[in-house]
Design brief:
By secondary structure, this protein is an all-alpha fold. The protein is 84% helix and 0% strand. α3 packs antiparallel against α4 and α7 runs antiparallel to α9.
Length: 210
Amino acid sequence: RQITTLSLPLFAQHFLSMGAWFVFFILIEKMGKHALAMSNVIRSALTIIMTPIWAYFMATNTMVSNLIGQTKHDEVWLLIKKIIRMSLLTTLFIVGFCVLFPKLILGLITSDQTIIDDAVPVFHVVTLSMIAFSITAVLLSSVAGTGATSVALVIEFFTIMLYLVYLYVTVKVFSASLTIVWCAEILYWVLLGCASWWYLKTNKWKTIRL
C-alpha cells in the first residue's frame, strides 16, 4: 500500500507529461505539414541532446532519497546546488555547440535542406529552453526524491494546464509562428522550476514520513 501510494502520483505525472506532448503535436499538425515536419525533426534532435540532463535528473532522485534515508536533511540543499551547477555547465556546453552548428545537428535527422534551414530559428528556441530544463529537471526530481510525489503531481498538473492554454492561444487564436509556439517549452520549464523551488524552500518535505 505504501509503495502504491508513493508510485501512483509518479505514474500520473508522467502520463500528464506525455499527454501534453501529444496535444502539442496535434496542434502543430493544424499549422500544416511543413510545420509538423520541422517539429518532428526538432523533437528527434532534442531527444538526443537532452540525454545528459536526464542522467542528472535520475541521479538527483536517487541521491536525495539516499540522504533523507540517512536523516541528513540539512545536506539536501547542498547536494541540489552541486548537481544544478554540474547540469548547467554540461547544458551550456551542449547549447553552445547547438548555437554554433545547428544545421549540422539537424542534418543528422533529415537530409531535407528546406526543413533544416526553416527549422534553425525554432531550434535556437529549443536549445534556449534547455538552460531552464537543466535546472528544473534537478529541482523537480528533488521534490519526488523527498517522497513528495503527490506534490510533484500537483505542480506538473497546474504547469501543464498553463502550458496548454499558451499553446491553444498561440496556435488557434493568434495563428503565431512555429518559433513562438515552441516558446511554450521555455514557459513550461520556467514555471515548473519555480514551483519546485518554492516547495523545496518551504521545508515541508522534512516532515514527510514514509
